[in-house]
Amino acid sequence: MIANYHTHTYRCGHAEGGEREYAEQAVKAGLRTLGVSDHTPYDFFDIGPRNHPMRMALEEFPGYMDSLRALGEEYRGRLEIIPGVEAEYYPKYFPRLLELLRSGGVRYMILGQHFLGNEVEDRYCGIPCPEAAELDRYVSQSIEAMETRLFTYFAHPDLFRFTGADADYERAMERLCRAARDTDTPLEINLLGIRENRHYPDPRFWRIAAREGCPVILGCDAHQPQWVTDPGSEAKAVGMAEELGLELLREARIRSL
What CATH number is given to the structural domain containing 57? Predict the structure, then answer.
């Protein structure tokens, strides 16, 4: 890997280390580009202040951006540091989010659709679910997100933990993969999932992605500085991609907001 765009900091509440520590590790590993994409703050304007324990708080956002801008100048010529966020697509709150991110100078978003509907009143996507209708909701919401053409790529698109019929999974994820291809949205093979033996990467999904000719990229999903690169998981991901005939992108085309 020469670039990693999926990096978190202590601000999200479930990661360790600050952006400087990740930058130092990236330089040691020989990366050219480090995208820092902590879990975005979200302004749930109609229900009052709400800081989810798994995302950056609104009041932390200015300091996050100031730190990344300063670090980018300091590391200029050694490492390109790109300030970004990982964001869910919540239609009701998305316009307000874009205003916040644009005004703060965020350069890119990656899509991480952790919840259906929104996290205020709906379900987490990683909980086992046998209902095809819920999988269809995940796919439709993700497609709507990709069709904005504002997301640089789709992180762990196989996060939804579907335990129903394989035929239903095939039908739904074929629809998702075709939308990713048609919107030129790369799909991420998530190295954290490999490293921690999670339910993703899901081989069923990646067979569909290969068949549909989807662009694919690796993401470290680093929650600790030492995982900015992960050669062991990377080798497994590359092996899977080669076996399935997936074409891996080495760098992402940043989609500006």
Answer: 3.20.20.140
Number of structural domains (the chain) is 1
Rounded CA-CA distance 9/88 in Å is 17
- Alpha carbon 162 to its chain centroid, in Å, reads 19
pLDDT at 47 over 80: no
Any domain includes 165 = yes
Alpha-carbon gap, residue 248 to 216, rounded angstroms: 5
**Res 54: pLDDT:** 85
pLDDT > 90? residue 131: yes
pLDDT given at position 118: 84
Edge-first strand order for the sheet with 33-39 is 3-4, 33-39, 80-87, 108-111, 151-154, 187-190, 216-219, 248-249
- How many whole angstroms separate alpha carbon 234 and alpha carbon 237? 5
95 domain-assigned? yes
Is the predicted pLDDT of residue 50 greater than 70, yes or no? Answer: no
- Residue 83 CA, chain-centre distance (Å), reads 14
Kindly report the CA angle at 213 between 241 and 160, in degrees rounded to 5? 70
Tell me whether residue 35 is in a domain: yes
The domain in which residue 182 lies consists of: 3-249
pTM exceeds 0.85: yes
* Backbone φ and ψ of 252, nearest 5°: -95, 150
Give me the mean pLDDT over the 238-254 stretch: 96
C-alpha closest to that of 42 among 82, 94, 1: 94
Assess if residue 176 is contained within a domain: yes
Q: In Å, what is the CA distance from 228 to each residue of 40, 95, 124?
A: 19, 31, 26
